[in-house]
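Good morning,

Attaching, inline, the backbone tokens for the sequence recovery test we're adding to the shared suite. The designed sequence is right after.
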């Protein structure tokens, strides 16, 4: 059984997912299609990279991942296939793959010899990615796709939390559907920087978080803010039975300052 995953910014309203799935079911016998998400914010590669890194890297060998975020073809933004952990990732060389695979050994192949079936190029996943997926499902070989390239053409790097004047400056890299905000620092790095010291994290004008919560219920009452460790290992800001990001107006890319005491 061939596993194919879909990670996109298509949303749930339109026909795109159904159109792509219909072609994959026709082209690949016994295909198992897994929807990772279609809810990535339009064209936003930072949360897309976060999702793929946490949801896709541990699938079985030879899984094919279709990633459609800010996908359009030009001489500067080529379509590529990345092989990592013996899996295949079809995407656009637009900075997104460099974020996903920044710490992973990969093979990169361009797909310039895989041509669209039509004269118009408004939906690359249908025109191009589905064809690449069929080839990979039959061969599990990158040599059938195109030519090897040594590095990503467009390079983006994840921002890292940093410390200055006893302040840990973090960045929100992802906000889930509950409004929980994931920070660009994990629990091990956080504990290393603190070195046994206490911390304070001001929220709004009146609320201060000064401990790591073990769960969403580990605060006094509904609506209280908390800092905890997410399933990904990242520090996570949340409200008990509430929407942290919506209530306080936080967005991906906003900075969060944690004061070491």
């Amino acid at each position: 059984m061939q596993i194919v995953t879909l990670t996109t910014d298509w949303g749930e309203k339109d026909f795109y997912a159904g159109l792509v799935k219909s072609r994959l079911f026709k082209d690949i016998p016994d295909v198992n299609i897994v929807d990772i998400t279609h809810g990535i914010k339009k064209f936003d590669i930072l949360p897309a990279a976060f999702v793929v890194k946490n949801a896709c890297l541990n699938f079985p060998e030879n899984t094919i991942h279709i990633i459609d975020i800010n996908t359009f073809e030009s001489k500067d933004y080529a379509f590529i296939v990345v092989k990592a952990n013996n899996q295949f990732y079809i995407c656009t060389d637009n900075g997104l793959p460099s974020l996903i695979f920044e710490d992973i050994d990969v093979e990169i192949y361009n797909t310039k010899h895989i041509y669209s079936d039509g004269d118009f190029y408004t939906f690359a996943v249908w025109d191009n990615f589905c064809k690449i997926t069929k080839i990979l499902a039959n061969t599990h070989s990158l040599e059938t796709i195109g030519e090897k390239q040594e590095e990503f053409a467009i390079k983006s790097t994840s921002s890292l939390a940093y410390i200055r004047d006893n302040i840990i400056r973090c960045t929100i890299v992802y906000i889930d559907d509950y409004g929980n905000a994931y920070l660009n620092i994990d629990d091990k790095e956080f504990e290393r920087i603190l070195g046994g010291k206490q911390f304070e994290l001001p929220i709004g004008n009146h609320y201060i978080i000064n401990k790591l919560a073990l769960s969403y219920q580990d605060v006094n009452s509904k609506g209280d803010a908390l800092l905890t460790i997410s399933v990904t290992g990242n520090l996570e800001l949340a409200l008990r039975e509430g929407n942290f990001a919506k209530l306080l107006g936080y967005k991906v890319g906003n900075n969060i300052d944690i004061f070491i005491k």
